[in-house]
Amino acid sequence: MAKIELLDQNTINQIAAGEVIERPAAVVKELIENAIDAKANAITVEIKEGGISFIRITDNGGGIARDDIKVAFLRHSTSKIRSALDLLHVSSLGFRGEALSSIAAIAQVELVTKTPGELTGIRYVIEGGVEKTMEEIGCPEGTTFLIRNLFYNTPARRKFLKSATTEASYIGDIIERIAVSHPNISFKFMSNNQVKLHTSGNGNLKDIVYNIYGREIASNVVEVNGSSENVDVYGYIGKPIISRGNRNYENYYINGRYVKSGIITKAIEEAYKSYTMSHRYPFTAIHLTIPGEFIDVNVHPTKMEIRFRNNDEVYGMVYHSIKDILAGKELIPAVTLVE
Ligand code: ADP
Ligand code: MG
Predict the structure, then answer these.
(1) pTM of the prediction?
(2) Strand, coil or helix: what is 5?
(3) Measured from the CA of 96, which atom of ligand 1 is nearest?
(4) Are the C-beta atoms of 124 and 136 separated by less than 8 Å?
(5) Which residues are in the DNA mismatch repair protein S5 domain (predicted)?
(6) Of ligand 1's atoms, which has the minimum distance to the CA of residue 101?
């Protein structure tokens, strides 16, 4: 047997990156989450070639202080929790401190950032985990991450990427879902210099549904509302007339986080079932607000899975708020006037 040795940091980061960063869309998701956590209210995402060669994310959030920059790129470094106890009430989207170290291990990263207190900003370049440049630069408050040549040093990973068009569509998809999760943030998405999405950030969920999914869907949704002791439900569900043959339009969010949950999917579909044919799925944009101590988001590195301490309450609230509204509604499609 060979001698047992601890891997070097860079190798550790590359291995970890395999879990967090599967494809360009994961980079976009992680960096947008960071911008949201930094309290940005305008976030721009620009990509080229499906994000494989170029992803730039600009926010107007709080920026990263000069002294924090190097630390931010270390694995398990975070400003969002201090101990395992804080996992009981995570209120930020990030908390694992893995995104920046992972991305920097497998791409060429340039960061330009300025905090409100500083006169000048900092430009920091790190490639394949190796620091290249750290210099002062004039720039606006907030943060810009430029990620070039994802997986350039992990060819096996790169081979698994799909075509640029497909990768771009994954990115568009995740941005749309996040935009619906934060109606108060203006999102702009550009692919190959073309604007694909631009939301106003005016806080109105229905406006975003209209903006992203179009008039037919926006004029055929009904508002869902309800609350129990620990669960608030708010959002929109599509009338059966706009039900679909797949689950792509089933979106729900817990405390502003886009997640997948078997319990919520089931509650939605069971409530919807008697109003539509089998194998038809609803459009939903539903926000749940649940106290942090009832949920565990530390289930998977991508933070897309979630566990509830109050499964029955969550299921019941989602089920009943949808069922009640559908039962009471005239479900014929809204009349759209032909001009
Ligand atoms: P996490 O989000 O889990 O804390 P990350 O690796 O994504 O870990 O980021 C590390 C740290 O870098 C964050 O905790 C945050 O303090 C800082 N950071 C990252 N992106 C931004 C940003 N856009 N604006 C301000 N701070 C940021
Ligand atoms: Mg993060």
Answers:
(1) 0.94
(2) coil
(3) 3
(4) no
(5) 209-327
(6) 6
What number is the average pLDDT over the span 188-203?
A: 98
For 329, half-sphere exposure in the C-beta direction (CA atoms, 13 angstrom radius) is 22
Domains in the chain, CATH or no CATH each? 9-198 (3.30.565.10), 217-328 (3.30.230.10)
96 lines ligand 1 (CB under 6 A): yes
Q: What is the pLDDT of residues 5-27, one digit of tens each?
A: 999 988 888 988 888 899 999 99
Q: What is the largest CA-CA distance in the chain?
A: 78
User: Are 256 and 93 contacting, i.e. CB atoms less than 8 angstroms apart?
Assistant: yes
For residues 332 and 47, the model is more confident at: 47
Q: What does DSSP assign to residue 242?
A: G
How large is the average pLDDT for residues 137-144?
97
Q: How far is the CA of 99 from the centre of ligand 2 (A)?
A: 5
Cα(206)–Cα(42) distance, integer angstroms: 19
This complex has an ipTM of 0.99
- Which ligand 1 atom is the nearest neighbour of the CA of 63? 25
List helix spans (H) across 68-196.
69-72, 99-105, 155-159, 164-181
Q: According to DSSP H, which parts of 21-129 are helical?
A: 24-37, 69-72, 99-105
Please indicate whether residue 73, judged by its CB atom, sits closer than 6 Å to ligand 1: no
Contact 43, 106 (CB under 8 A): no
pLDDT of residue 18: 84
Nearest-10 Cα torsion for 317, 322, 323, 327 = 140
Most informative mutation of 20, 21, 31, 34 for ligand 1 (most atoms within 8 A of CB): 34
Interatomic CA distance for residues 254 and 277, integer angstroms = 28
Residue 215 CA to ligand 1 centre (angstroms): 36
* Residues in contact with 328: Cβ distance below 8 Å, sequence separation at least 6, in sequence order: none
pLDDT per residue over 101-113, tens digit each?
999 999 999 999 9
